[in-house]
Amino acid sequence: MLEFAGFTSEHQSMSVDVIRKAYQATEEGFLSLVTKQWPMKPQIAAVGSCCLVGVICGGTLYIANLGDSRAVLGKLVKATGEVLAIQLSSEHNVAIESVRQEMHSMHPDDSQIVVLKHNVWRVKGLIQVSRSIGDVYLKKAEFNREPLYAKFRLREPFKRPILSSEPSISVHELQSHDQFLIFASDGLWEHLSNQDAVDIVQNHPRNGIARRLVKAALQEAAKKREMRYSDLKKIDRGVRRHFHDDITVIVVFLDANLVSRASSVKGPSISVRGGGVNLPAKTLAPCGTPIETQ
């Protein structure tokens, strides 16, 4: 939030460039932290995160992503009453063939840039995502050495970053038939299809809907392991990582009337509040679509 506040205050608008700069500043901030902590906590060099961002401003939705989290739109088809799932984000996981091809094209001299290990595609045999915040051990060679754990160290030093922090960004003009957005980590999408998730949101009450999605995913995870959901829930969290990935879900409901009004707003188009950010009143203006989150 702080980075968006600074950039949007400077530009007085939201744009793809503003979002890209915010990602860059976040990456640089984390790199600075790693540099300071390296002498005391060198393993922080192997810490990283996916980063999925949604910004609504003036009736326009911006989706930016690093890694394999996903944003899905529930879109009403008025002729049939169906709500269709529309994926808005691009993913950076080398399980996807096009991502593997991208990695090969970016590193043509490295035949081992992507390796199939234990039946799972991984960058250098280590990590599934090709883009992230952090993971500087695969971005700067000076952090890929002792005392970093041996399992993270590459045999040969690299001259250019292996992973990227450049987000994929899409822009969507919101329409009155756009109903809601689902933002979730790959732990959800591993067990539910886009349409499955949209159907659950559409067919159940809003209150507690994110928890309902998590439960549905865990029920599928239990089914795949031929066990009961109640037994899966009893497993210690540290051990459960072997049964399913962590799951984070946010559901955002859109108001059709407010979407229409927001798209016609004139003047300054950004308002940033919250997250401990305080900006002068003159830099703030009504922006985007008031939303309800679950």
Task: Characterise this structure.
The chain is of the alpha+beta class and 294 residues long. The chain has one domain: PPM-type phosphatase domain (Phosphatase 2c, domain 1), CATH 3.60.40.10. It has nine helices and twelve strands. The protein has helices at residues 2-11, 16-37, 97-106, 186-189, 194-202, 209-224, 229-234, 237-240, 256-262, and strands at 48-49, 51-57, 60-66, 70-77, 82-87, 114-117, 120-123, 133-134, 168-173, 178-184, 249-253, 292-293. Pfam families: PP2C (PF00481). Residues 1-254 form the PPM-type phosphatase domain. The chain crosses the membrane at residues 44-64.
Give the gist of this structure:
The longest helix is centred in the N-terminal third of the chain and has 22 residues, at 16-37.
How do the strands and helices of this protein lay out in sequence?
Elements: H1 2-11, H2 16-37, E1 48-49, E2 51-57, E3 60-66, E4 70-77, E5 82-87, H3 97-106, E6 114-117, E7 120-123, E8 133-134, E9 168-173, E10 178-184, H4 186-189, H5 194-202, H6 209-224, H7 229-234, H8 237-240, E11 249-253, H9 256-262, E12 292-293
Helix pairs in contact: 1-2
Tell me the total number of β-strands: 12
Name the average pLDDT. Answer: 84
Question: What's the CATH superfamily, by name?
Answer: PPM-type phosphatase domain
The portion of residues assigned to helices is 25-40%
